[in-house]
Amino acid sequence: MDKNAKIYVAGHRGMVGSAIVRQLQSRGYTNIVVRTSKELDLRRQDAVERFFAEEKPEYVFLAAAKVGGIIANNRHPADFMYDNMILEMNVIHAAYENGVKKLLFLGSSCIYPRLAPQPMPESCLLTSSLEQTNEAYALAKISGLKYCEYLNRQYGTDYISVMPTNLYGINDNYHPEHSHVLPALIRRFHEAKESGATEVVCWGTGSPKREFLYADDLADACVYLMENYSAEDLGNETVNLGSGKEITIKELSELVAKTIGYTGTIRWDAEKPDGTPRKLLDVSKLERLGWRYKTELSEGIRMAYDDFLHGESRAER
Ligand code: GDP
């Protein structure tokens, strides 16, 4: 990518999109185009077509998505499918119609089967049933990555896709019910510490295992792949993006409690869903391509907690 190339980052207000913008800026890219969802509703095909025809971006990072944790996904499957499917199709198709040189599509590790072999290689996609709690989201993401592959195959485009593990970091969503586990725990333990509560309730049994990647590490990997690899180099197949390390939710809750300084007890509410038992990505392809994560979980949680505290003070102003 030329440093003056016009690069559209879709979803720049979100955790992933904002990290990609920071990463591009730090690498000296000067011509980054963004739109808020108010300015451009990516679910409107005509608006997306007009935007691409007017702006003619050369590169696209597709980080816009409707995202949420296990409860949000489980309760609103229709919304998760519709919003994600339609915005992906609109953006990827408009990119193709307007000659975008290269596009990077961000998926999620939940695209892999519920009982996939662990760690999960890219090749286990579509080999058995999905996890029920986020099937709708997964189907939309599988469609997006397949659409990129089909365009490459049929029209010779260069659209790559990456499948990140569970992400966390700056600009995360700290909604008490709808967020993912890590931001939810940061908020809950912080509030317990502030109020002097002696017990915090977490969801499920605490026994599922998850892998986490700091959003700025993810952004670094995305820009690295855009700069160095084409879809052809990647065998026209997606690339897993993760740390390759997993931790139980129980261990995670203890780590978050320690970072925040909460010293009370932790109780588990087994009425809430556990979701898939494990989802560790096989990152050997990524490592072969020359990339490895940088931020350890304990350090990342500290930085995320700092950002959460700044967010709180921003909201109070
Ligand atoms: P998942 O990775 O798609 O299952 O999504 P989540 O990040 O929402 O949940 C990961 C795991 O953390 C699940 O086993 C949840 O039951 C567990 N968990 C424990 N406490 C919480 C919480 O407060 N919020 C969320 N979202 N998950 C929690």
Structure, described:
With 317 residues, the chain is of the alpha/beta class. It has one domain: Rossmann fold, CATH 3.40.50.720. 43% of the residues lie in helices and 14% in strands. It has ten helices and twelve strands. The protein has a six-stranded parallel β-sheet with strand order 2-1-3-4-5-10, with helices on both faces. It has a two-stranded parallel ribbon with strand order 6-9. Helix 1 crosses helix 7 and helix 6 packs across helix 8. The chain is globular, with a radius of gyration of 19 Å. It starts with 6 loop residues before the first strand and ends with a helix. The mean pLDDT is 96. The site of guanosine-5'-diphosphate (GDP) has 19 residues, from helix 6 and strand 7. Guanosine-5'-diphosphate binds next to helix 6 and strand 7.
List keywords for this structure.
317 residues; alpha/beta; Rossmann fold; six-stranded parallel sheet; two-stranded parallel sheet; 10 helices; 12 strands; 14% strand; globular; binds guanosine-5'-diphosphate
